[in-house]
Amino acid sequence: MKLRVNNVEFAYNSTPVLESISMELDRSEMLGIVGPNGAGKSTLIRCVDRILTARGGTILLDENDISKMTRMEIARRMGYVPQTTTRVFPATVFDTVLMGRRPHLGWKSSEEDVDKVLEILELLGIMEFAMRDFNEISGGQQQKVLIARALAQEADILLLDEPTSNLDIRHQLEVMDIMKGIVRKKGISAIVAIHDLNLASRYTDRLLMMNGGRIFAAGDPESVLTVENIRRAYGVEALVKSDGERPYIIPVRPV
Amino acid sequence: MSVSTGRIALFVVVLLLTIVALVGSSVVTGSSAVTVDDAHSAILHKFFPDRYEPNWLADVCVWNLRFPRILLAILAGISLGAAGAIMQWALKNPLASPYTLGISHIVAFGTSITILFGFGYIGGKFVIIGAAGISALIATVIILYISSRRWATPERVVLIGIVMMILFGALTTILMYFGAAEAVKEAAFWMVGSLNRASWNVLAYMAGTIVLCAILLLLLIFLPSLFGVDERRIRTSAMVVASLLTAITVCFTGTIGFVGLLAPHICRRVIGDYPRFVIPVSGLVGAVLLLGSDLVARTVISPVILPVGVLTTLMGAPLLVYLIVREGIRG
Amino acid sequence: MATATGESHTVTADEIREQYKKFVGRKIFFIFFFIALIVGITGVSTSLGSADLTVWDSYSSILRKPFPNTFESKYIFTLDDVPGSDGERLKQYLIDEYGIVWVQSAEISKSADGKITITGEGDNNVEIMLDERDTEKMTVKISGDIDPGHRVNDFKVKEVNGELHIHESTWLADVCVWNLRLPRIILGIVAGIGLGLAGAVMQAILRNPLASPYTLGISSGAGFGASLAILAGAGFVGGKYLIIGNAFVFALLVSFIILGLSSRKGATPETMILAGIAMMYLFGAMTTILQYFGEAEAVKEAVFWMVGDLNRASWSVVTIVSVVIALCTPYLLAKSWDLNVMGAGDETAKSLGVNVKRTRVTTMIVSTVMVATIVSFTGTIGFIGLVAPHMTRLAIGGDNRYVLPVSGLLGAVILISADLVARRIIAPVILPVGAVTAFMGAPLFLYLIMRRRREYW
User: Domains of chain C: which residue ranges?
Assistant: First the structure.
């Protein structure tokens, strides 16, 4: 068990956002978090990476409490991929990915760091953009660059906050394929907050469905993505079909 | 919500009384060895020549020095306050004023370059005033153009105005060094503003311009058919009137800052946001502010006279910070 | 958007590695280029002024201090060998330098106390004697057939192995360079470095391209603090540390207000700068009032604090400012990686192990220390900290590891060139350098505000 979240609570000012969240993440597992807007998906991911500090409960990384770890120690274990970033000042794709080496290097980047960055750029197929400015490339390419940065961190857990929500369907599939491949090949685990239930169903090993700051349902996609759960969590009437392996959701109307 | 005329009338009366009180105390304070009694008898001698024996020194001091200065403070205050109110209304920008839009400094630059070319205050007065007017119009056109852009948030317009202010302030400073030996002092006059150049002549020009502008405004507001009913056109014409007021004021007092920003805000806070009342009443508020600041500037470290612009900045800059922070939270 | 797959040439890792090396090489080239530029401008700037020197004169005068033998002025003769073996040498020198051809055929004599006399026809006469008070000086008096009738000059005396070697005098150049011009230029260099660096740091940590010590009002706060301390009785000579300390306190106050404002929701870069400028006017007004409480020269002093110039340069000032800049710079450079990471947003920076809040506060404090020290002696020179980082990024991109040092160097280049312009444009009057930098910086500022529309709409 790589990551264990026990009874985590979080509140913005006095508005509770997360209430007694408990979950676990296995080695080489891709865990999806789904739920309507405002369910607390992003907040949970940020709490796990201690970008936000959880009010109550514990988060254990290999049985070590992250609240007792330094930021740098956490950064070496977990990589965070934000939804988007806008940079005020220019930075090349290469330099952006090189920033992922921050937890491992001092002021000077060594030849080894450069090699690592090139290897990851190759892996994600974005080598040709290496010397372009980050702000000049398309949203899908930017998302890949952000994933590349997290990979450069050499973390064994990746946390992705809605990585596909700004992308066209081709890029959605590309990004999720890349993630799936990395999880399989490198033995990394990933937590992905995701809006698209069909993508979630197709790519994740296990799903958490959140609603109102609580975990509403958990398990494999088939058991979570049921007509009943979707109706109660989203207030949407939907058809759920199956291709024999994974459920597919066709939303019909709001109830 | 209806206009509370009673409230406005009361405010106007209070303002007028304050002006009278300030005039009264201003006229009897000063560095020269003129006692309060001397000053009183010098004033009263004008009206009752038989009953009050004038003292020559007091007479000169009061009638040639203090009264022109006081009246200049009132007129400049009216014109800056009203100009600020017009600009804030016309541009729908609560941060606008002759100073914060950079118009004052562009006028100062235009005026001082004319003076540098050899037109003195005595002979070439009309050339100087003309130059001031033209610079004000150019500045206004620039500001109107910028404000009409889609990206023009109030903050951005004022930021551009302030940069123009810094730029033309620097240009004016450099000009001063090219010119007179008293360069630094001159530059300070144009950059901070003062009421030292008051004279009955100056007052006549100022008063004339203010009356002219008042008539133009009345025409604008009450006879919109003259200008068409297009509101944008009315606002643009109002800006031109405001730039005229700015031009004449800067010409004779330099760039006195923040009166035009402060006055409309104080005014709106008391009487509410009714442009046709806010504009004239802001003028009165401006007069009170400038007159009061001048009184403080002359007395606080007497016999040294502080530049009055420094005091108005001291009041106005915190207001600017407050407005920005408030707008910032709202945005 | 089309993804570049298929036939298009696939880029290999080695190509990128090569490009990246070139990219880094270009940045390093700029560092050396600006250092060379600073050296060049220093030479030109020290040579120009009320007494004209050649650029070579000023360089050799500068280098003579550390390397007295290598950069010695022209050797003329040895005192003991005149009259005698060096007599012709001396004559030739007098002909070349002063055009007095008559010495060719004149007689050289020397008295017991070492006074050399060359007497020609009529009034023509040259006397060279050791100075009574200054053992390193010889006075040369020429009279007769020379315009305007007579001339007095100096030679320099140098003892080598017990012999007195006579060289060309370097007195004028040394005084001009070392006492008058060099302190001013070096103050310009270190102040420029400090302001350029502080500007780059502030833009990075506030993620605000309009930020700089000047436009955030921090310089004005420092100016007010410094003039308050001076008015309270701390002289420029004794109470330097008190002045800097007080400048720092007020500058820090402004810095924290700005940091507080930047953490507010809805604070756009523009609102932050407007607040900064409003504080600039507030402190400017308070400083002006202070000047009136103080000396009679109030207006001049107020202009000094509000516009800024380098007239107060002296070696002790240069030393203090240099030491502070030298102490602060390494810390900021060490943090440049973290500033890069913070450029991607606070959340990303946290996830990459950067303690965002602490880094932001400490780098802001360190930059403020530099700004306060500089402003204490130069007044508020504007726009260096705004212009330098932008021009730097234009040239070498946004990597703060290089932006920070290059921006500092460029700041120095800008400030000493602006000072050169300020000194020469209507010589002998010296303009305040702040007026010149405002003239350069304000248009850039306008451009930045108007360009920003793209990012918002």
Answer: 22-58+175-456, 75-169
